[in-house]
Amino acid sequence: MRGASTQMKRNLCSLMVVLVLGTVAYFPSLRNGFVYDDEYTIVKNSLIKSGQHLPQLLQRDYFALSAEQSYRPLVTLSYFLDYAFWVLDPFGYHLTNLLLHLATASVLFMLLTALIARGEPGREWRYVPLIACAIFAVHPINSEAVNCISFREDLLCGLLYIGALLVYVRGRWYGLSLVLFGFALLSKEMAVTLPAMVVAYDLLLGPPCHEGGRADCRKRLGRYGGYIVVLALYAVVAFGVLRGEGLQVGRAPGENLLSACFMKLWVVACDLGSFFIPARLSAEYVVFAPGRMRAAGLLIGFALLWAFLVRLLRFPGGRRTIGRSCGVSDQMPLSIEGGVSDQIPLSREGGVTEQIPSPLEGEGGGCSAIPIIDLVRRLIIFGCVWFFVTLLPVSGIYPIFNIRADRYMYLPSMGLCLVVLLVLSRLGGVRVGQRAYRLSVAAILFLVLLCFMGETRARTRVWGNELALWSDALAKAGEHPRAYVGRANALIDIGRYDDAISDCTKAIKLISSYPEAYYNRGLAYLKKGEQDPAIRDFSRTLELVPDHTDSLLNRGNAWTEKGEYDRAISDFNRALAIAPESVEAYNNRGAAYGDRGDYERALADFNCALRLNPRFAGAYYNRAMVYVDKEDYARALGNFMKARSLGYKVDPSRIEACRRKAAPAR
């Protein structure tokens, strides 16, 4: 009991170290704003701004309203909760992301502790979960998933995925593992690989099937069947009942099977390079097909990796013992209750015999023992399988639009962290306690953690605002059309319209049919006061994407500024036909009606907008202007005051004028 209590205290102390390191690395993110896709998933997403929309998470129009291309209702539900507490204060959203990341690191620590405990190879090994999770908690490659609110799906999926695997490893509450697997699928479809990881665990670290007989084999196959059933139910709901279209497909022009395979290998190699040397991380990457020399290097590199894994599979002589019960094995004596421990002889390479303490009771509800050499090798293979299997769905096998992104490494990097620590341990021999080697490895790991933490904090500052993010991406990725459009959007926000127009024009030269480039350039022209070129760009966007509601809204605004109210109202009507609950469409159409002098229709539209979003300050301001035109100064004053209380900049002279003119009426 005393030993178990001491071990628990050590684990808690180790876990606290991991949490402190992760908090220090990502604490600056709490000052960041909304970046990347946050404008669509949160700021402009009317779905998350009212609890009345919750049933739409289970309806077919979820995909159109949530700004998601695949079925991720659990992520959208988290946005509902954030908006209920924080409205549009980015601090709260970033706090949620940070807490999810720390929770994932905590569950990963428990999982690695359970895996290491499969053999209890020595006291030095208890530091492997600590250091592996510390690397994961501060690694710069995870900064994209943590810093961008819209990539919360990777955090939620990672947390639930690891939780489901941990429950399975511990051998209890199998039903809970299935539930967590289902929730992981509802966070991100990347979780489809969990059944493969369960099988990999059983083959490498679980008890041999033959020891339990046919009944145990049937039971194990039945457990696998449960995961397949959950996966099938998810597919039926997401792609059958709700008819989701899945991820956006993007194939390179002229890409054949051979070039596609080399491209996937090249992406995997780039991801491995970014993990070990995270020096040029970016929000966007330009991925080129590898040339002949690089292709040859890839083949050689992966052949060597395959040979390395095959070599690891050649386990030492003698059978390992894994028991689900606490009976005594005839192959390897187990520890005796009462504090007396047998010694287990293990043959080392070179004929030297090593004595290590016998295994303690395992996590899986019984006693388990794996010789130290077997354990290390099997864990290394398990970590490699973890990396390749979890990266498989986003490696381009299915032709997704973004073939490479740092956020895709969030789950695979967990396996790599384990592999790195175990390989370092093996390089020093089985006896990890060699003082000189242990101190040198500790010093190197300490420096690596410091470097990773510094780079993560630097990446957190880059993700602080749109201009810094996209300028960094252009500096590292070169001429990238999406980065140009992203920076143009940031330049528009700070009033640098000519620079924004220049960036959009560069993006159009790279991709002549890029709708977002035309839209952003049109928006820059509109804000600059040049309606005609703005209308041309919005019209071009609508040729490429006929249901682009933002283009309809802004082209309608341009028509309104030109005094062509009928054309403006026509565009707003089209926008409302596409998005019947668009607050901006009602507000903009109301403004057009008001400018045309149709005050009753204008007031009706403003009232509709405020019913949909009672905190929409622009509608209060526009309704106040209509009341001013109608000389109803008391109501105008009330609407001006409400708009100002919601943060809208109202000219104080307007308020004072309404107050004076409304005074006699009182």
Explain the overall architecture.
The protein is mostly helical and 666 residues long. The chain contains 28 helices and 2 strands. The protein has helices spanning 2-26, 38-43, 62-66, 73-86, 90-116, 127-138, 143-147, 152-170, 174-185, 194-204, 209-241, 257-276, 292-313, 372-391, 412-427, 435-462, 466-477, 481-493, 497-510, 515-528, 531-544, 549-561, 565-578, 583-596, 599-612, 617-629, 633-645, 652-662; strands at residues 343-347, 353-357. Strands 1-2 form a two-stranded antiparallel sheet. A hairpin with a 5-residue loop joins strand 1 (343-347) and strand 2. Helix 14 packs antiparallel against helix 15 (412-427). Mean pLDDT is 80; it is low at 245-254, 315-368 and 428-432.
Shape: elongated
- Output the structural class: mainly alpha
Our measurement of the CA-to-CA distance between the termini, rounded to an integer number of angstroms, reads 80 Å
- How much β-strand is present in the residues? under 5%
Q: What is the H-and-E element order?
A: HHHHHHHHHHHHHEEHHHHHHHHHHHHHHH
Task: Identify the quaternary structure here.
Answer: single chain
Radius of gyration (Å)? 30 Å
Number of beta-strand segments? 2
Q: Which parts are unreliable, with pLDDT below 50 for 5 consecutive residues or more?
A: 245-254, 315-368, 428-432
What level of helicity do the residues show?
A: 55-70%
Please state how the strands of the largest beta sheet are arranged side by side: 1-2
Largest sheet: 2 strands, antiparallel
Query: How many H/I helical runs?
Result: 28
Average pLDDT: 80
